[in-house]
Design brief:
single chain, alpha/beta, five-stranded parallel sheet, 12 helices, 5 strands
Length: about 260
């Protein structure tokens, strides 16, 4: 795997406390879990790289944690949380709807849902890019969403909410993940650079945050590119060259010249 992918896996948030830039949603989820008032289906939507799949996995761990009240799983200490983090839990099934779009794939899930959980409280299906499912697949899913057994939870993630049928939307609790704010992103990237022993200024990280347009995944990819191309000499000018960005001061100078020329007309 590439270095950037390894870093994304290495620094992927494992608990709600680790998540960056989604505080309102985190508080809402934690409260509903603590009150034992969780819906049968969650829907997370937002642009690429803001944490939809990550928050789905953390939610699955929180729902199936063996010792939730004791807060024992900050480091995946319970067996359920450890297995979910390693994508090997028998009761938590992840499906990528981009590659499994057909009705037969959904029917397999529904058939599997007829049996209760083996070693945890809930059987959980995480379906990423759910908008890619076919119309027939959505129709097959609808009946189970309408009358799900108490032990079954669905967690959907999508970048294109407008392509999800309204009949599905009406049966889910929807959470809109916002773009990561620059300050939060800069602090997170600074922490990664510190852990990796790489020296980079806050101004350089600000350029990365601006270029990523609120996507943490894009920011990590750009940061990896800078680490690789700068050869240990990371300057603001080298970052601008790597990212293909213009000097803001030069842009202001250009704007002033244009305005002066406009006033002379």
């Amino acid at each position: 795997a590439s270095d950037v992918y390894k870093r994304q896996i290495k620094y992927r948030p494992q608990t709600f406390e680790d998540l960056v830039g989604q505080n309102i949603i985190v508080e809402a989820l934690k409260k509903s879990i603590s009150l034992n008032k969780t819906p049968n289906a969650f829907l997370f939507t937002g642009i690429r790289g803001v944490g939809k799949t990550t928050i789905a996995r953390i939610l699955a761990k929180s729902l199936n944690c063996s010792n939730p009240k004791n807060n024992d799983c900050l480091n995946n200490k319970c067996e359920n949380c450890l297995q979910i983090s390693e994508s090997r839990h028998i009761d938590v099934i992840e499906m990528d709807a981009a590659s499994k779009t057909g009705v037969d794939d959904v029917r397999d899930l529904i058939e599997f849902s007829r049996y209760g959980p083996t070693s945890s409280r809930y059987k959980i299906f995480i379906i990423d890019e759910v908008h890619m499912l076919s119309k027939q697949a959505f129709n097959a899913l609808l009946k189970t969403l309408e009358e799900p057994p108490n032990y079954l939870k669905f967690i959907f993630a999508t970048t294109e909410i407008n392509k999800v049928p309204s009949t599905i939307l009406s049966r889910c609790q929807r959470f809109d993940l916002k773009r990561i704010e620059p300050r939060s992103m800069i602090d997170y990237l600074k922490d990664i650079a510190l852990k990796e022993g790489i020296s980079i200024t806050e101004d350089c990280l600000g350029q990365v945050a601006r270029a990523s347009e609120g996507s943490m995944r894009d920011a990590l990819s750009l940061l990896e590119q800078i680490f690789a191309d700068a050869n240990g000499n990371i300057s603001l000018e080298s970052v601008r060259l790597i990212l293909g960005l213009a000097d803001r001061g030069r842009l202001i100078d250009l704007f002033e010249l244009l305005m002066k020329q406009f006033l002379l007309l």
